[in-house]
Design a protein that fits this description.
Distance between the termini: 121 Å
Strand content: 15-25%
Radius of gyration: 32 Å
Length: 257
């Protein structure tokens, strides 16, 4: 007879719990308004254009190419970078009382801007626009552009006499600014940017935030009254409006007044 040891009690086990597969969280939509496709495409084209033309521009500057060769490069950048059609949007040589504008830009057959091109190594100055200002005024054209291929300056022309030309912005394709800032500025003068009046909004913002505009706000009746009352509360001195205006202007740079 075989003796067996004590039998270990059996412990009832439950089947392992069935676990649900972990569901991935739904992607969080980006905040802010969605950028329209036409704008995204335009910005991407400008970004690629800046990158593509950097080497040819540097080479042109090193060789100090003439104005005619600079125009070839400008034409290519207008088309490949800024989205203009060489045959329907670019018009060459507008006569201006014996002088010439290098290009006219058309959007939907409407002449919207004049471009003056200078030699790639030329230091740009507002005086270079004099030959196209009168033509722009006569034709009701608001936008004038000055470029040497690398640097681009955009001006607003006010046709009311006396003619006034103000710089809206400038950008250097080879400059140290981050590419995103260059794209932001150049986007305003792409074909899409002009068609959708982005350049108008840029100009409006510049006018609204200019030193002279801020100076007008600071010397407005509402602000002067508020400053006068605050002065009285803090110092117990009752200044006149004229005194307050003088004090405010005394803190401004001369060009703001």
């Amino acid at each position: 007879m075989t003796m067996n040891g004590p039998t270990e009690p059996r412990i009832a086990t439950e089947p392992p719990p069935v676990t649900e597969p972990v569901k991935s969280a739904a992607p969080i939509p980006p905040s802010g308004p969605k950028v329209p496709k036409w704008e995204a495409d335009s910005r991407e084209r400008v970004k690629l254009g800046i990158k593509r033309f950097a080497k040819p521009l540097a080479d042109f500057i090193a060789r100090d190419v003439n104005e005619a060769d600079t125009r070839f490069l400008v034409t290519d950048f207008l088309c490949e970078g800024l989205g203009y059609d060489k045959f329907s949007d670019l018009t060459a040589e507008f006569s201006t009382k014996g002088e010439f504008a290098d290009y006219g830009l058309r959007v939907d057959k409407q002449l919207v801007a004049l471009i003056e091109v200078k030699r790639v190594t030329t230091k740009l100055a507002e005086r270079h626009l004099r030959q196209v200002e009168q033509y722009g005024a006569n034709e009701g054209i608001e936008w004038l552009m000055l470029t040497n291929g690398a640097q681009w300056q955009v001006y607003h022309l006010e046709a009311a006499l006396p003619l006034t030309v103000e710089l809206v912005f400038e950008v250097d394709l080879l400059g140290p600014e981050p590419p995103a800032k260059k794209v932001d500025r150049l986007f305003a003068i792409t074909r899409e940017g002009i068609k959708h009046k982005v350049i108008d909004e840029v100009w409006k913002a510049k006018c609204a935030t200019s030193p002279k505009a801020i100076a007008r706000v600071l010397t407005s009746e509402a602000v002067v009254t508020a400053v006068r009352k605050q002065l009285r509360r803090q110092t117990d001195y009752s200044a006149t409006d004229a005194e307050v205006v003088g004090l405010i202007k005394a803190t401004m740079r001369p060009e703001c007044q």
